[in-house]
Amino acid sequence: MHALNKWLIDNSITRQVFAKKINISTATLSRYLSGDRSPKQSIMKKIIKETKNEVTPSSFYSSQNKNIFNNEFLKKHLLGIEGLNKKEISSLLDRADSIVKQNQNNVIYHSYKGKTLVNLFFEDSTRTKTSFELAAKRLGMDVINMQIETSAIRKGESLLDTAMTLNAMRPDILVIRHSLSGTPHLLANKVKCSVINAGDGKHEHPTQALLDALAIKNRKGKIKNLKVAICGDIIHSRVARSNIKLLITMGATVNIIAPSTLLPNNNLLGARAFTNMQQGLKDADIVMILRLQLERMHGSYIPSAKEYFKFYGLDRNKLNFAKKDALVMHPGPINRGVEIDSELADDINRTLILEQVELGVAIRMSVIEHLLNNNNLNTIQ
Ligand code: CP
Question: I need a surface site. Which of 61, 168, 228, 237 has the fewest CB within 10 A?
């Protein structure tokens, strides 16, 4: 194998990205790597310079050339999975996939120095908030974590006024989580910067669905034609909505399983609904378990947590209804002994829970990078 080809593979750099970086076409690079020496001498010199390792992987990634990946997600905001096509989702997943290895080697990018991300979380979060902060810092950005409980919101300032105030400080990205569905969409129409939805009520949680998709792709090698069973509190779950939309767009089939009180009456978004775990889990490649969203329940939806676990909590017996090699996912936080058996939750051969968290940083880096590269777009999506 050509030394440059090996270098590209070892450093997870695609031919397309490398060719763009040194301003030649992918076809010319591919011809060179397959032994064709007919292109112009000047082009050869550029390639040979790289081959001699005069550019290291870390300097390659910290390059000032920000547009070094193939960006098919040309939107100003990420407000939901709804409306995204296969190409746009793949663009976000592919970039994240190339970042994962760099994160494991603790590579810090400096390309986005001077850019600012503001975290505005009106609901509790461990994973999403922390990983957005880490993702932005890995990209060399400044991060502001707004402390809602000590902000002027406590003095009666409205959400819109808060957003306009932050907007006046010219951040580049605003990440918002709010209990009211549609809040990120409202803010996106008011502020100049890009807005990322980090979870809005029962509506959407797009970066969760993206990181789940990356975890599935990493372990199963594909998403298309897989059967994914999503079990638990579907009706209150933004994670379920975003996942169903993404998985169906990417060619998977989705079963949703819950007691009838926790299933939507209509608009299943293309999923098939089951109230029985044995039927719903049949032939599933992936079993995604959801938490009971007690904070969104008004009244009683289940007789008791004990009863719920008996019929819907995932343990090894119920997992046997799925395929032999089925993998278990959970967006977290998990409630052991309610929706999932504690011992199963800790089995790293069957569950991807912590892997999902790790991939969340790469997905958020990918989303931020795409949006920063798009920040001249006027489209409001
Ligand atoms: N999965 C998820 O959104 O977790 P957090 O609430 O901890 O952010």
Answer: 168
Give the integer Cα–Cα distance in Å for 249 and 92: 14
Question: DSSP readout, 3-17?
Answer: HHHHHHHHTT--HHH
Beta strands 327-329 and 286-289: pairing type?
parallel
List phi, psi (to 5°) of 330: -155, 130
Taking only the tens place, the pLDDT of each residue in 355-378 is: 999 999 999 999 999 999 888 554
Nearest CA to ligand 1 atom 5: 125
Whole-angstrom distance, CA of residue 339 vs CA of residue 102 = 34
pLDDT tens-digit series, residues 59-72: 444 444 444 678 89
pLDDT for 123 beyond 70: yes
Cβ < 6 Å from ligand 1: which residues? 125-128, 199, 208, 331-333
Contact between 246 and 205 (Cβ < 8 Å): no
Alpha carbon of 333 to ligand 1 centroid (Å): 6
The CA–CA distances, whole Å, from 153 to 26, 125, 165 equal: 52, 19, 11
Among 209, 296, 287, 221, which residue's Cα sits nearest to residue 255?
287
What's the maximum distance between 2 C-alpha atoms anywhere in the chain?
A: 76
Residue 132: strand, helix, or coil: helix
Q: Which residues pair with 314 in a beta bridge?
A: 340
Strand order in the sheet with 173-178: 142-145, 116-121, 173-178, 194-200
Q: Which atom of ligand 1 is nearest to the CA of 331?
A: 1
How many C-beta neighbours within 10 Å does residue 87 have?
Answer: 9
**Torsion angle of alpha carbons 97, 100, 101, 103, nearest 10°?**
150
Give the CA angle between residues 210, 61, 32 to the nearest 5°.
100
Residue nearest to atom 3 of ligand 1 (CA): 128
Closest residue CA from atom 4 of ligand 1: 127
Rounded to 5°, angle at Cα 242 from 95 and 175 = 65
- Strand partners of residue 358: none
CA distance 333 to 330: 8
